[in-house]
Amino acid sequence: MSQHQEKARIIRFEQLSELNVRITLDAPLIAASADAGQFVMIRTGSGQDPLLRRPFSLHQTSSSGYIQIYFKNVGRGTHILAHTKVGELLDVFGPLGRGFRFARDRAACLVGGGLGIAPMLFLAKKIASSSRDHGRDLIILGGRSREDVEPLVEDFKEFGLALRCATDDGSFGIKGLVTDLVKSEHLTRDTVVYGCGPENMLEALNRFCRSRGIACQVSVESVMACGMGACLGCNIDAAQGDYLHVCIDGPVFNTEDLAWNS
Amino acid sequence: MEFVNERDSYPDLRVDIGGLSLRNPVMTASGTFGYAREFENLVNLHRLGGVIVKGISLRPRAGNPPQRIVETPCGMLNAIGLQNVGVERFIAEKMKYLKGIDVPVIVNILGDTVDEYRMLTERLRGVEGIAALEVNISCPNVKRGGVAFGTVPSMAAAVTEAVKKAADVPVIVKLSPNVNDIGEMARAVESAGADSISLINTLIGMAIDVERRKPVLANVIGGLSGPAIKPVALRMVYQAAGSVNIPVIGIGGIETTGDALEFLLAGATAIQVGTANFINPRVSEELVDGIGEYVKSHKLNSVRELIGALEF
User: Fold this and answer.
1) In angstroms, rounded to a whole number, what is the distance separating the alpha carbons of residues A250 and A52?
2) Residue-wise pLDDT tens digits, B143-180
3) CATH 3.40.50.80 domain range(s) in chain A
4) B75 belongs to a structural domain
5) 251-290 in B: which are within 8 Å (CB) of A?
6) Residue B22's pLDDT band (boundaries 50, 70, 90)?
7) Contact call for residues A37 and A84 (beta carbons, < 8 A)
8) Which listed residue (B139, B169, B175, B276) is catalytic?
9) By the CB < 8 Å criterion, does B217 face chain A?
10) If you measure CA to CA, which chain B residue comes closest to A94?
C-alpha cells in the first residue's frame, strides 16, 4: 500500500449549501492509488493550532489526478477549509485505510445519509464502471432536508444507476429515513449493502441487514491523530471483544465485525 | 581545481547516549512511531539517530475504551492505555523487521511491578537487533504502577536497578514531568545505574464536553503532548541536565529544527520527536537535515558543541 504526502492545489471550490462544501484538489499521486472508501488526512492550517490533520473520506477521484472531499463546516478545522480559495495549497496525506470490498458478482445497494453521502459517489462510480448488468444496483441518499441531498443528485444520476432519495422533512424525495427506503426495496439475500452516515442510521442498517441475512459494509467515523496506525487513538469496539482501529482496520468494516449497541 | 571529499562536507552529528552511539541526535518517541514499519515508505529510517518502538509489556494489553484522544490548543490529550501486543508477539512478529533496519532500535518497556520489569528485561536479553531499552516509569494512564513508579524516587530507583541488572544493553529511563522535583528523580535513577534519562513524558491533563457534561476521554484523564508542552519540557530538561552526569534525551513538543536546537542548548545530548510524527510523518528526517545545516552554517566541528552550550 502506498501513501503519499502531497501539497495539493485547490482547483475548484463549491459551496453546495449554507454549510456544505466540496473541494477539488490536484493530488495526482493520491488520485492514482486511491480506492472507494479510503480517506485522506488534511492539514487545515500551517500553524500549531489546530494541530492535528483532519480525516476526510474521498468523495471522488479522477483519472486527471484530481481528488474531491465533501464536508460540513462544523468545527475549527472544517471552518478553516470552508474559507480556502482556488489556487491555495493544502497538505494532503493518503490514501489511507481499507475501503469498500466491492462484490462484483452481487447486487449493490449504496446507502448514504447526510455527509455519509461523501464516499458513496466514489463507490457508485466504481460500480458503474464495472462491466456487468446494473439492473439490480441501487443508490439511496438521504439527509435532514433538500440542501443535504439535492446538490449531489446530478453527480449520482450520471452513472445511470437507480436512485432513490429521502429527507427527514420531506423537502426532497420521500419524507422519512434512508432505512425506510432500504426496507421498502425488497432486497434479495445476495445483495451487498454499503452504508455511510450517522451512527443511528448505521445501527438501523445493521439491524435490518442482520434480520434479513444481507451482507453489509459500513464506513465509520472516528477522532484520529495520525490516520496510519501509529497513535492507536481511533479504536472502536469489535464484535470479538477487544478493539479494531478505524484508520487501519477500517474505515469500512463488515457490520458483523463490529460490536453494536442494539 | 580542488577536489572535495563529499563525505568530509557532511556535518558531524554523532552523539553518544550512555554506551550507545547514534549517527545523529534525532530519534522518534515511543507510541508515536508504531513499530517503525508503518513509516518505512514515508521516512528514510536509516537517516534517523534511532527509533523507539511502542511500549511493550509482559502480556498483551487491549488499552482503554474509546474515546482515547482529543485535540487541545496546540496539543493533544491521549489515553491510549498502553495498548500493545505483549513481549512474545513483539519478539516473534515485530523484531523480524526491526532487526533488519539500519537504525538503532530502542525498545520501550513498561510493567505494573518491579518483578514484571525484571522479567520483561530478561525476556528481551539476547534478542538480536535491540540497541537499548527505554524504561517507561511515567505513563499516567494506567491506574496502578505507572504513576507511583514515576513519581516516587525510591520506586523509580528500584525499577531502574532491576532492569539494569537484567539488561545486556544500555538502559534509558524515561521520566514523568508530573513530579515536584525533576532533579531529585533524575539523580535517583542515575544512582540506580541508568545509562541515560529521557524526558518529558506527557503532562496529565483533562478535557470536558460541556454539552454532555462528561469527560471527553473515556479514561477521564490523559497525557498532554505537542507544542503546548514544549516550554515546560525545555525547563525540565534544563533542570535535569544540571542535576546529573549521564546524558539527557529531550522530549516534548519538538516540531522544528529550532525546537530541537533549544533542547540541545538546554543540555540534551539527543532528542525525540513525538506528536509531530502524527502531523508530518517526515518530520524527524527533516530535523536531521535542519540540525546538519545549522552545524554547517555556524561552522561547528560537531553537533556535540551545542550540548548544554546555553550562554547567560
Assistant:
1) 20
2) 454 456 888 899 999 999 999 999 999 999 999 999 99
3) 107-221
4) no
5) 255, 275, 277-282
6) very high
7) no
8) B139
9) no
10) B42
| Nine cell digits for residue B39 | 513509516
For position B147, what pLDDT does the model report?
Answer: 55
**Distance in Å, alpha carbon of A236 to nearest chain B alpha carbon:** 6
Whether residue B142 has pLDDT greater than 70: no
CATH 1.20.1250.20 assigned to domain A107-221? The reply is: no
Which residue shows C-alpha cell 482503554? Answer: B64
Q: Which residues of B touch A230 (CB under 8 A)?
A: 32-34, 38-39, 277-278
Q: B35: nearest CA in chain A?
A: A230
Residue B139 is among the residues annotated as catalytic for this protein: yes
CB contact under 8 A, B76 and A235: no
- Interface predicted TM-score of the whole assembly (ipTM), two decimals: 0.93
Where in chain A do CATH 2.40.30.10 domains reside? 4-96
Whats the size of chain B, residue-wise? 312
* Domain, as residue range, for B13: 6-63+81-202+226-306
B69 in a domain, yes or no? no
Q: What residues in B contact A224, CB-CB < 8 Å?
A: 69
Closest to B22 measured CA to CA, from B50, B43, B51: B50
Q: Compute the half-sphere exposure of residue B38: CA atoms within 13 Å on the CB side of its CA.
A: 23
**Three-state secondary structure readout of chain B:** CCCCCHHHHCCCCCEECCCCEECCCEEECCCCCCCCHHHCCCCCHHHCCEEEEEEECCCCECCCCCCCEEEECCEEEECCCCCECHHHHHHHHHHHHHCCCCCCEEEEECCCCHHHHHHHHHHHCCCCCCCEEEEECCCCCCCCCHHHHHHCHHHHHHHHHHHHHHCCCCEEEECCCCCCCHHHHHHHHHHCCCCEEEECCCEEEECEECCCCEECCCCCEEEEECHHHHHHHHHHHHHHHCCCCCCEEEECCCCCHHHHHHHHHHCCCEEEECCHHHHCCCHHHHHHHHHHHHHHHCCCCCHHHHCCCCCC
Q: What is the CATH number of the domain that holds B291?
A: 3.20.20.70
Determine, yes or no, domain membership for B17.
yes
pLDDT digits (tens, 9 = 90+) for B208-262: 999 999 999 999 999 999 999 999 999 999 999 999 999 999 999 999 999 999 9
Which grid coordinates are listed for B98? 526491526
C-alpha cell of A8?
Answer: 495539493
Closest residue of chain B to A6, computed from CA coordinates: B280
Shortest distance, CA A41 to any CA of chain B (angstroms)? 9
Q: Is residue B231 less than 8 Å (CB to CB) from chain A?
A: no
pLDDT at A1 over 80: no
Q: Is A4-96 assigned to CATH 3.40.190.10?
A: no
**In total, how many domains does chain B have?**
1
Determine, yes or no, domain membership for B259: yes
Which of B34, B76, B280 has the CB atom closest to A225's CB atom? Answer: B76
